[in-house]
């Protein structure tokens, strides 16, 4: 996986601090390590959050 940009790291931290509801909240490091790169040459990453995947673009834009 390519290194994360600063904007991606900030977006990940913002997602992590959202309300997880009834879902068990892992540690930040465990959760961040679960991030996956969308495609080999695509800088967008995907992270699991509350039974869905959230995409985080290099500029920090997040989408489901």
Write the layout of secondary structure elements.
Elements: H1 6-16, H2 28-33, E1 36-37, E2 45-49, E3 52-56, E4 62-63
Antiparallel strand pairs: 1-2, 2-3, 3-4
Structure, described:
With 64 residues, this protein is an alpha+beta fold. It has one domain (6-63). Helix content is 27%, strand content 22%. Strands 1-2-3-4 form a four-stranded antiparallel beta sheet. The longest helix has 11 residues, at 6-16. The mean pLDDT is 92.
Query: What oligomeric state best describes the polypeptide chains here?
Result: single chain
Helix content: 25-40%
| Largest sheet, spatial ordering of strands | 1-2-3-4
Give the SSE string.
Answer: HHEEEE
- How many domains make up the coordinates? 1
Highlighted features:
four-stranded antiparallel beta sheet, 4 strands, 64 residues
Summarize the structure.
With 64 residues, the protein is α+β, with helices and mostly antiparallel strands. The protein has one domain.
